[in-house]
Amino acid sequence: MPVTRWGDPAHAAPLPDGVRDLVGLVFSLGDTPAKADVAVPAPALAADLLDGLRAVVGADNVVLDDTARRQRTRGKSTPDLLRQRSGDLSDAPDVVVRPGDHDDVQAVLDYAAEHRIAVVPFGGGTSVTGGLIADRDGFAGVLSLDLGRMRSLLSLDPISATATLGPGLRGPEAEALLGEHGLMLGHLPQSFEFATIGGFAATRSSGQASAGYGRFDSMVVGLRAATPKGEVRLGGTSPSNACGPDLRELFLGSEGAFGVITEVTVRVRPVPEVKQYEGWQWPSFEAGADAMRTLAQGDLLPTVLRLSDENETAINLARPDAIGGEGAGGCLMIVGYEGTPSATAAKKAAVTEVLTGLGGTPLGAEPGTAWAAGRFNAPYLRDSLLDVGVLVETLETVTFWSNRERLYGAVKSALEGALGEGTMVLCHVSHVYATGCSLYFTVASAGGEQPLERWLVAKKAANDAIVASGASITHHHAVGTDHRDWLAPEIGDLGVDVLRAVKRELDPTGILNPGVLIP
Ligand SMILES: Cc1cc2nc3c(=O)[nH]c(=O)nc-3n(C[C@H](O)[C@H](O)[C@H](O)COP(=O)(O)OP(=O)(O)OC[C@H]3O[C@@H](n4cnc5c(N)ncnc54)[C@H](O)[C@@H]3O)c2cc1C
């Protein structure tokens, strides 16, 4: 991936003229191209330490070149991209180290702990919360630990329906390996094409089919991790047990601060024979959300369930080619069914009866098929908008159903208040539970002279509004460095002390992702 944009450069495209004109009606446009050749600061790690690392993992796996270090600088949030676009690569690691297996990872950690080198585990580099920005104060240097060589299917237990995967496998690679056995994982975040199995576990990721298949942490049966204090293996003996608190949970969402996840055992399922997606229209966001709640509380969740608010429906974000087209109005819901023909038919009949009874209007397969075809495209649109000076970013939160409306209003007004007139705030619900749902906001506003500064003010206002509304600071993007200051209100000061105590025990010299997750 290029450092200033998302994804495959071949997919990058300027806005079509018609869309550019439309966008220009709302925002003042300009040309704000990224700096072409961004210089990376010279590596700061001493030569003898580099030699030491070469002795641990082999010279070929200790990489110093500018391109490799540039590509492992920060993640893919809009602030990350804006910093990179302006030529700021000050967070570049000094060296990229590529371990081949668990023992390599352990040896690198032992060496780094002995020589006080900060270690940033790197999966796909798609973090959107500053999870790859280490605080280098007090360290001999920063090492990006790229898990990209650890990408195999390590074992498969088809009887128990579990598979053990390497942490560096990207979403499509993991699905392809499982697909050879007629199996799949079903974890499809929008970053699916580039994010990795280890990253999903380390951030408690949630995918577009979470209604049917669950969030990633619910798929994890067991894991293995290397820590500066040695190996941890969890969940290897049983699907569940009563052996005290579940320590797997300590590593799920630990964002590289407690250890490096080197193996993940996940629950797998047969590849679905049928995949059907369709659209429903609702008179309001509230009516659609109530319908989602009814399905969730009635144990009737389809595989995919998402609902756009009026603004998102109107500009039809899921279909940039159809902005302003027919069908806009009300709120669009996408409902997807995957599984065997008989199971999907039965689920569809039951869901259709409920949605019709609640006042939904069926729109047929077309909106669902269009959503499925474009489901990974929105990040490319963000780049095209950044290119013409429009500030675009997303944020997410989660709360109980009874608090949904209040939270929605509070975050919207915080963003509009901070960014001023002409700001567009769109929202959708794409992860639901019997007890509540997440809200995912997309914000577009004129970038102005200082888009990064504008966004940081808006993001703080949104975070404060989330906390004041009694909601959670993140449903699936994780804490990183961007949400760290809002963690204490979430888990309490004693909760933070517990995290610090765990870190002290597993990582006594504090080399793992310093500054990430723990305030
Ligand atoms: C365009 C876009 C769309 C996105 N859509 C979604 C979405 O739909 N759902 C969702 O949940 N998230 C989404 N994200 C966020 C991101 O993709 C997830 O957080 C993802 O899980 C990160 O995986 P990764 O492999 O890229 O991890 P990285 O970005 O490389 O790392 C993330 C964090 O985990 C740590 N880490 C990585 N690997 C390991 C390991 N093996 N052991 C220990 N620590 C590790 C890193 O140090 C870092 O702190 C999106 C991001 C982008 C840019």
Automatic annotation (TrEMBL):
Site description Important for enzyme activity, residues in chain: 306
GO biological process: one example: lipid biosynthetic process
Keywords per UniProt: FAD, Flavoprotein
The keyword Flavoprotein belongs to this UniProt entry's keyword annotation: yes
Active site: 440 (proton donor/acceptor)
GO MF assignments: alkylglycerone-phosphate synthase activity; FAD binding
Pfam families: FAD-oxidase_C, FAD_binding_4
Record field: transmembrane: none
Annotated positions binding substrate: 382
Domain FAD-binding PCMH-type: 89-271
Disordered: region residues: 68-92
Binding site for FAD: 121-127, 203-206, 255-261
InterPro entries on file: Alkyl-DHAP_Synthase (IPR025650), FAD-bd_oxidored_4_C (IPR004113), FAD-bd_PCMH (IPR016166), FAD-bd_PCMH-like_sf (IPR036318), FAD-bd_PCMH_sub2 (IPR016169), FAD-linked_Oxase-like_C (IPR016164), Oxid_FAD_bind_N (IPR006094), Vanillyl_alc_oxidase_C-sub2 (IPR016171)
Cofactor annotation: FAD
PANTHER family cross-referenced by the UniProt entry: ALKYLDIHYDROXYACETONEPHOSPHATE SYNTHASE, PEROXISOMAL
Family of this protein: Belongs to the FAD-binding oxidoreductase/transferase type 4 family.
Protein name: FAD-binding oxidoreductase
Source species: Nocardioides humilatus
